[in-house]
Amino acid sequence: MAVIEEYVDIVEPATESVISTIPRAGMAETDAAVAAAKAAYPAWSSVAPGERAGLLRRVSGLIEERGEELALLEARNVGKPISDARGEVGMVIDTFAYYAGAPERLMGQTIPVPGGMNFTFRESMGVVALITPWNFPLAIASWAVAPALAAGNTVVLKPAELTPLTAMQLQQIVLDAGVPEGVFNVVVGPGNVVGERLVEHPDVSKVSFTGSTEVGKRISARASETFKRVTLELGGKSANIVFADADLEKAAEAAPSSVFGNSGQDCCARSRVLVERSAVDRFVELFSQSMQEFRVGDPLDSSTQMGPLITARDRDRVASFLEGATVIARGTAPDGPGFWFAPAIVLPGSNNDRVVREEIFGPIVSIIPFDNEDEAVMIANDTIYGLSGSVWTENGSRALRVARAIEAGTLSVNSNWSVRVNTPYGGFKQSGIGRTLGPNALNYYTELKNVYVATN
Ligand code: NDP
């Protein structure tokens, strides 16, 4: 087992300074959190649905009251632009409000059967473990915490050690809202200790994980030993398909935020832009221009659109994708301190290049020409991933045809939007298992029970 340090320094990526030092949990703290969640489960799962709804509404209200404080903390800890952080906090408020509507609507069916009556029920699962990443710490946590609590489960959340500050605040907010102690627990510690323990723990019924495909595979394999339910939201290599008949100005204006947003550290990043050959030159010209206008700098400046990368190691890893690549346009970034990386547009030599095949998790985008619709779909689907994607065209029939043909969970037409609180989100293929958000998410935090009553 790994040696555990007692404290962990939390570093601000834009300045490289330590902004907080917090205790680091290990096995004992993880087991204690699971025990607290297990003890709290019988009472929480029996709370009347209307009361549970009221508590979740109060959580949403308190997040709104402390919104600016949370956004500032997130912007500093992740290095993301404050305007993005404010938007994400807004989504967290909406997520708790949306799932506050769930406890009173968790309904089953009556099914006609001979000799009696048949009912189905959606029942809570018990202790749910949530393991979340560093790129959207509070937002991604809320996507799992809110439906899990709404369905009557108790929760142990393990945030990424790099960015635990807003999750720790959320724990206090949930308590302040009146949710009983033990219902929602946060354990800050390394994934290979705290995360592994949660996945193997016999008292955990379900694991919801967002992060790398590599760790997702390991979690899936280990969770199968105890047949835990698993939801996985993993990596992506999404395609942004631009046909020659599209509104090229609009597509190019939207392209930077779809791949450089959150410094490219976004599983939905459209890191492959497929452009119909006759439009490549014009599109690249427009895209390069909008990239130059994309404001990279101090995350706490409200006009900033892109901050630094999360760590120096990630900056080096991202830079390695440019080795040997043909860079056709490059943006700018501050010199440092901070883990800065200027955005880049590259022209790959072939569709087998590393820059085309691997998730970069940084602000680098490949331009890939195509000659016809079938080829565009073939290239878009030529990946192990299947998370999201976009289609830009003025031809409505083609837009629908292509959107249906892409093997991905979330598609948008003439837009790069992927995530909304009230619509399902998740991946095909190696981008994951299950769906978060929207009404379907509740299916992943409940078990389906069938009861037959003989009346003859
Ligand atoms: P990881 O998948 O390693 O981490 C995500 C979460 O899982 C963190 O809370 C981490 O803990 C935890 N974890 C790590 N190892 C284990 C384990 N063995 N068992 C249980 N939990 C574990 O992502 P990284 O932060 O290392 O990022 C690596 C790459 O993953 C990125 O470059 C990107 O390609 C991809 N990624 C994708 C994300 C997405 O949104 N789909 C989000 C983040 C990363 P801790 O970090 O505290 O040790």
Quick gist of this model?
This protein is α/β, with parallel strands linked by helices and 456 residues long. The protein has helices at residues 27-46, 49-65, 67-78, 82-100, 137-150, 165-176, 191-200, 213-223, 248-260, 280-293, 312-319, 354-357, 373-381, 396-405, and strands spanning 7-12, 17-23, 110-113, 116-124, 127-131, 154-158, 184-186, 204-210, 229-233, 239-242, 272-276, 326-330, 344-347, 364-370, 388-392, 410-413, 432-433, 446-454.
Question: Which helices and strands occur, and which strands form pairs?
Answer:
Blueprint: E1 7-12, E2 17-23, H1 27-46, H2 49-65, H3 67-78, H4 82-100, E3 110-113, E4 116-124, E5 127-131, H5 137-150, E6 154-158, H6 165-176, E7 184-186, H7 191-200, E8 204-210, H8 213-223, E9 229-233, E10 239-242, H9 248-260, E11 272-276, H10 280-293, H11 312-319, E12 326-330, E13 344-347, H12 354-357, E14 364-370, H13 373-381, E15 388-392, H14 396-405, E16 410-413, E17 432-433, E18 446-454
Parallel strand pairs: 5-6, 5-8, 6-7, 8-9, 10-11, 10-15, 11-14, 13-14, 15-16
Antiparallel strand pairs: 1-2, 3-4, 4-18, 9-17, 12-13
This protein binds NADPH dihydro-nicotinamide-adenine-dinucleotide phosphate (NDP).
NADPH dihydro-nicotinamide-adenine-dinucleotide phosphate (NDP) binds near residues 161, 199 and 218.
